[in-house]
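Predict the structure of Sugar (Pentulose or hexulose) kinase.
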Amino acid sequence: MRHVAVIDIGKTNAKVALVDLDTMSEVAVVTRPNTVRTGPPWPHFDLDGHWSFILEALRAFHDAHGIEAISVTTHGASIVLVDREGRLATPMLDYEHQGPDEVAAEYDAIRPPFEQTGSPRLSAGLNVGAQLHWMLKTDPGLRDRTALVLTYPQYWSFRLTGVAATEVTSLGCHTDLWNPSEGKESALLATLGLENKLAPQRPARDVLGTILPDVAARTGLPATTPVHCGIHDSNASLLPYVLGKTPPFSVVSTGTWVIEMSMGGEALALDPARDTLVNVNALGAPVPSARFMGGREHDIVSRGSPAPATLAALSDVIIEGVMLMPSVVPETGPFQGRAAYWVGREPSIGTSERAAALGAYLALMTAEGLTLTGHRGDVVVEGPFARNEAYLAMLSAVTGSLVLPSRGSTGTSQGCALLALPDGGVTLPETTPVDRRGDADLIAYADAWRRLARA
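Done. Here is the predicted structure for Sugar (Pentulose or hexulose) kinase.
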């Protein structure tokens, strides 16, 4: 097997990539914005638009290169309800919608504790259980219309094959629906009256089936094309290292969300008030994790005019003592409820100095999460921040770690493609290590930032 088509739905963009398993490189990539529709009945994602986009991409990739398997990865904090005919029972709620907050007190009274689920209590619909509670209350007929509850990657596998499934990396992504220490569903599904509607759990690597005849007709793919179950996107970034790297180490998956995942680190008590949580990897094992909305923060501060975050600009920022303090998105991360502010001169929009100060801020926020999860060893960086020089240098200095940036455009696509590989033979993504351990100037800057942030 050589070419795997990866359906990769992120919060900001939907993407289809063709991954060459021999080189672990992306042969072809197409994207579209993951636009939220305003309603009715509530803000929701354009799943039918994504479906047309996916089918067209599969057709084009197969015509140009050939496709031998399909795998799926998506963002978390999402669930899809399907009726008896296999259609949507209701549109898939945008997890940033504030509707669930209207009944937060009622939900808090029924949700399982952090000690059982590893899920911190989050705002809006970031806890899937809160989404379900609010949707069922808002639409009284929804429970009866719902025949199947699907995790989001498995919704696309279902549309491709007709085989319904759920999978632990999505169930274990701060949903309140999963007990990672016991490896089973939490009591919340029964409380919500959905205990018999959750689709069967399947391993991420499982072949759920081959593509449906209609999919084969619309894409030109052979009817025997296998479709793998699929995986949560941050866990797709983690997967190559779970399979091919010896702990301890941490993987930082960057995109709209920055997720820090520690493997084999120091055992610490996680603090849900600081946005730490327990994720579940593709092998079903709990993974201490932390997160903040780093990609969103990058876009907010850049204001549509990003510039290169060069090492020269970082040096100027350090000399001048310019700092961005948390939190740009105060609803998430280790310093929730704080209002962001600048120390010293605020660099102009569109300058490398602004980009470097922002890169340093994002690295220091990442390092805070790594500290909270007991990080030890190397730090692997996947996704767009792996190309940010200021971010990588500061992260190495402040953590005292060798930083390994992945060369892929996003680590999720390559990791997801590995689901199609037979066991063994995993080749880790290429990297050029960044080593700024012991850099006195960067460490002094980081120490000053931390004193202010933790005050």
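The mean pLDDT is 95.
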